[in-house]
């Protein structure tokens, strides 16, 4: 038994209320259970109820046992002075207010609806290899699953919107600068994303804007400020880049390169930070007013066109400055551009729409064009419920579901888990 189950029981009043009595035999009538508090302090604010003939308005605290009140030292915390009812699974001790009167207590263990309690135990004590509801998941109604995934996707967009809002504030509401920083982060992927974002944050975007017509200069600044031009290599191209960076570093007062340089270890050559930064420079040079172009794009194919870039000749035969290879195509793959759509373009379009208070939701059409991502989480959900998950919106929602609900056992906050507890799945 977990306390969040009692929160659920109290919030949705899943217990027999005819009639109700406190553990001391006082008549109890609940007018409103209060608002669930997710921060510190009592569990429910602004409840309204009647104890015997007295109507009370105040807070409700919930525990597994009454004695947990003293275990958590609520008796010395003024935040709990306005608690009007103590709701517990099992009453094992009277709780006294500061005026030495007994705090009214409601014990739940004998009044919770049996079906609710039975389903709770089924969910949390079932044999599982992966998630709590895996043996029940195939039986969830398709419409309920799709509706919950849609809500989860917007929840995920809101999480990403927090970063975008922060970047927008840092950039004086310059959406072009925000796009550059988001692209930098996502060109770095998981391994170098933070380093690339740090790089983008430490270069005034006006410098990037001024250099966006010159591939060589932009390349020199990105590679140099990332700390990737600090060694000495025999390559003539390396020395030209390094000299150019030193000149531009002084000209624009760039300061020192970032302290933690991007890494090459555990990366395929196509994802080496040298290649990804050169590709990023090519994108910025290829399309002036990149943000405007992205905002106007309505389809995946239009995004593909924007990011259809090539790299300078040197990089067609190099992944780094140490050695060369036979000429290879170093254009951005469609799979990589799909990742940019998922993690940069669509979240940016969502944030822009929300910022401008528009109701244009074409970003949903765009994400629906992107194929379902392939990873262990998605594959496991597909095994449980085949043929229902079809595009990147679904795969992003499944990642949100697994990380934020399944893994931390927040089943009662999950729409599917809540339906299972109610027996309505």
Automatic annotation (TrEMBL):
Pfam families the record matches: DUF2851
InterPro entries reported for this sequence: DUF2851
Entry protein name: DUF2851 family protein
Organism this protein belongs to: Zunongwangia endophytica
